[in-house]
Amino acid sequence: MIIEKFIVITNNTLSKENLEKHYSVEFLSIAPLDLLCKVRDYIHLGHRLLTHPLMSSIKPNETPFRTVLISRDKLEQLDMDSLNIIENSINTTKRFLNDFDTPNWTEEILQDFQLIDYDLIHHAIN
Q1: In which domain, by residue range, is 71 found?
Q2: Which domain of life, per UniProt (predicted)?
């Protein structure tokens, strides 16, 4: 259970719809790699990662949905652990995207990926 105040960064409408009632949510209609780069921008501003950006066993090229929690409050200095984790996550995602095509999923499978992403972040919060 996360007890400090946080910001939800997501490109998943299911996460947005279920979390914005209770938490600060930034919804971005962008690709997962772009979302990770946006999270990195926040880290450079002093925020910390509260969840791992690649916290599921689903390969980064397989799902179009990503939800990450960052601290609401900023540190006075850059959190190097958060920066290392996000940089490694970005590099891993780039590697998978370069080596493997993203499948052309059916709408039903895309909904499953949305639910998995939401469920992971919901359980991280609670």
Answers
A1: 6-125
A2: Bacteria
Contacts 24+ apart (CB under 8 A), 49-54: 49/79, 49/81, 49/82, 49/85, 49/86, 50/2, 50/4, 50/6, 50/124, 51/121, 51/124, 52/85, 52/89, 53/85, 53/86, 53/89, 54/89, 54/92, 54/93
Domain presence at residue 1:
no
Is residue 85 included in any domain, yes or no? yes
The per-residue pLDDT for 44 is 98
- Encoding tokens for residue 36? 């990770």
Contact of 42 with 9, CB cutoff 8 Å = yes
- Name the pTM for this structure: 0.94
- pLDDT digit string (tens) for 64-114? 999 999 999 999 999 999 999 999 999 999 999 999 988 999 999 999 999
